[in-house]
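Troubleshooting entry. Yesterday's outputs looked truncated, so today I'm pasting the complete records for two proteins to confirm everything comes through intact. If either block looks cut off, that's the bug. Protein one:
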Amino acid sequence: MAPMGIRLSPLGAAVFCLLGLGVIYHLYAGVISSSLAAFRQKREVDLRDLLAVSLEAAVLGGKEVKIVREENILQEKSKGKTREGASEPLTLGDLQSHRKMFNLIKNTFPQIRVNSEEHDNVVEKVTWTRDVPADILDKVEGGKFVPIDSVTVWIDPLDATQEYTENLLQYVTTMVCVAVHGKPVIGVIHQPFTGFTAWAFVDQGTNMRPRSSYTISPPKVIISRSHSGKVTSYIQGAFGNSTTIIPAGGAGYKVLSLLETPSREVASIDQADVYIHITFIKKWDICAGAALLNALGGQMTTLKGEDIDFSGTPVNKDGLVASVGLDHKALLEILPYWQPEKY
């Protein structure tokens, strides 16, 4: 006698198939979900994580800068001359800071493009601690994902190297900036010799604030002490000979001079109304400051009034004017027409 088979009706077959699919889904849903998350992680990055990594990198680099200076092992040499004929020094502090900062970011986010002022092939096994500081957690929401290929990170391992060699340590900073599609979104400026760190995430939060008042009649203008060009005559032509002009080192320091710092440790920072630079300047010098100003309603533009594109070439050729708490457009209208060939 032949064995009896089980014959399903069309409805039964459909139910059986659905039950089977349900079992398969429960078996593999977790695997599929994990795979999709991993795929997304490779293609996108959470900007809050990048802010935390940037802050950690700036502080880590700052520790190296401080150690080298305090142990007096600068090993200073020259990288060459600027367009104005000033020597560009390179120290062990620059290199040690670069190695920590660059490798921390690249080891944590290997696919992100990182541009640094310094270059070498030393690999450091440093990775992010996964720590997000409490004030960032309090002010910035997570889940701010952007495509990795839209991100450019600019790092300055030691801003104001000339002043660093002269022991003018109040000017020295380490800086990290995150630009998305060429726009500065995250900025970190760390002062190694006070321990203070300024940070900002545009439209999300910052630990800085503008001062209560600024003026352009005439303003206090902060400028470079070592890359000044003909900036004094340019400024006096705009605002008059009685304008207060403050020479200072480091682009990071100059941006901080426009802001109110919440720490007594940095009370000695000069106070200025406007920051002006009329010669070439590199984007790793100014990107972090631009992000801080943008987060506070300020602006950093070229002297032509154009936004600076923080992607591509590292050189900004058209000078800059930076302000917060002022009518930036009115400020630009006072400044003489920009003719780079004159400066």
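Protein two, checking that the full record survives here as well:
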Amino acid sequence: MRERVVVLGPPGAGKGTQCKLLAAARGLLHLSTGDLLRAEVTTKSTLGQQVKAVLDRGDLVSDNLVLAIVRNRLALHREGWLLDGFPRNSTQAAMLDDLLADLGQPLQVALQLQVHEEELVARLLIRGRSDDTEAVVRKRLQIYARQTEPINAHYQVRGLLKCVDGLGSVREVATRMANSLNECQQGEHAIC
């Protein structure tokens, strides 16, 4: 089965860890937009040069540029894939839908890792980044919630959103993620 999955979740939910495990266990191409952007810059491709110029200015990479990079990777990989933390806003979600339709690779499921705010704050503060004060972390989580609500609704309306409890050990969460994908393959699209 060529699984095509988007994994969503707030900062501190464990997306990166869970995506790596899930991709390895199921033989999926793991696409993290941050990793893709860095890789594109390293290759010094035309897109990479554009990304480098944007990053050097301290700006955010545009939705169109990110989508162009994602398109390049998905066009070369017809097997299953997993997008890690992308899309990040409703504009990107709509653009991704169009891209996937063009490629003939419709999304099968959007997994939303859910962790309550107090746990997220604790996890992010433990990370120990110099800019991670409680006030800054809470503000980031509020921004994430504001930007992500429309994405969740977008996928929920289409019957593609599945929520996964992100609390517990790495192994427990990984098992829940895998079970959610198995349920989707069996036609069970329980929504959040």
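Both blocks look complete. Sanity check on protein two: Residues 51 and 57 are 10 Å apart (CA to CA).
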